[in-house]
Amino acid sequence: MTDVRAATGPAAPPDIEITGTAQHRAWQERQLPPVEQLAPDLWSIPVHIPHNPLRYVSVYAFAGPAGLTLIDAGWDSDEGWDALQAGLDGIGGAVAQVRGVLVTHAHFDHIGLARRVREVSGAWVALHPADAAVVSRPDFRDAHLAVATQARWLQAQGAPADEAAAVVGTPEQYAAFTTMALADRLLRHGELADVPGWTLRAIHTPGHTPGHLCFLDERTGLLFSGDHVLPRISPNISADRASDPDPLGDYLAALQDIRSLDVREVLPAHEWRFRGLQARVDQLTAHHEARLAELLVAVRTNPGGVPWDLAGLLTWSRPWDQYDGHMRIFAVTETLAHLRQLLTRGLIVASEGPVPTYTAV
Ligand SMILES: [Zn+2]
């Protein structure tokens, strides 16, 4: 007897299918997508992100008798504030009716406008404890301290002092980010979010940030994935001054955690809605495995390298010398995340000291 299944391996997961077709069409036409009604009491509202290739955040608004509950709020800018107000207006609501904001993670394009929403409506702001702790840190609330800490941190990754200072920028440039809303409520893994009429289970999915949350509605199988899983781009996974020691290890584990969930459709915070979570998880996993392999080769050929230099040896979406400012910081923090995972796997070792160097075993 031949076991056909054993011979052919498990069936491949179903392909990815774009369900947010209006969002996808708008992307190709370089327009903002429309506000869309996704259920009798659920809408997606695009909120523009200025000067950012992601273009917009999809804010999800749930309407109930007690008012509106949001997942994420958008980047804090006047243009974004207008877009959020107009979007809520268009569905027959208003910012003043918002009773709560569930924040997938404490990045400015998600939490930024939560502060203004709370000022207008008195809404609560809910975060996972790990991200709540990050936004309350002194080196995130004080612009001078933030810039100095970040520059020092980059020097510890091998950046020359003048280049570190140049890419970090000035306290004035950082000041807006110190206004992020502190949490009124904490949401832990497995807890039900306070959205009347919905059974939104919080799923801790660390990696993109230490306290990233996805929300799974157990009734409909809708997964609000934040930035954990996006249909086109691979979310930035950074080892930085606020991350856990091995954020890529956390991320890869959290991808496997959601892969087995019963998900009908993925509602991400950027780009477009889609089906085929398992296939997308497999693509993202393969992307990082390829990146790890590429970095291991770079470390082997450059023993004693530092993240600041190793980052420049990897393949990026544009030539390395065009990476400046925050792009370069992201590249270095992402390289360090992959180095930390290679360390966890025992494939490389790090030296002791203020500027650790990395060598293959
Ligand atoms: Zn984002």
What does this structure look like?
The protein has 361 residues and is an alpha/beta fold. It has one domain (4-360): Ribonuclease Z/Hydroxyacylglutathione hydrolase-like (Metallo-beta-lactamase, Chain A, 4-Layer Sandwich), CATH 3.60.15.10. The protein has 14 helices and 15 strands. The strands form four sheets. A seven-stranded mixed beta sheet has the order 2-3-4-5-6-7-8. Strands 9-10-11-12 form a four-stranded mixed beta sheet, with no helix packed on it. A hairpin with a 2-residue loop joins β2 and β3 (42-48). The longest helix is centred in the C-terminal third of the chain and has 25 residues, at 277-301. The chain starts with a helix and ends with a strand. Mean pLDDT is 93; it is low at 1-7. Zinc ion binds next to α4.
Which bin fits the share of residues in helices? 25-40%
Nearest-angstrom radius of gyration? 21 Å
Order of helices and strands: HEHEEEEHEHHEHHHHHEEEEHEEHHHEE
The main sheet orders its strands as 2-3-4-5-6-7-8
In the CATH classification, which architecture applies?
4-Layer Sandwich
- SS content category: alpha/beta
Overall number of structural domains: 1
CATH superfamily: Ribonuclease Z/Hydroxyacylglutathione hydrolase-like
Q: What is the overall pLDDT average?
A: 93
CATH fold title: Metallo-beta-lactamase, Chain A
Bound molecules: zinc ion
- The count of strands amounts to 15
The biggest beta sheet reads:
7 strands, mixed
Strand content: 15-25%
Query: In CATH's first tier, which class applies?
Result: Alpha Beta
Terminal-residue CA separation: 45 Å
Please mark out the parts with pLDDT under 50 across 5 or more consecutive residues, or reply none. Answer: 1-7
Write down the overall geometry. Answer: globular
Number of helices: 14
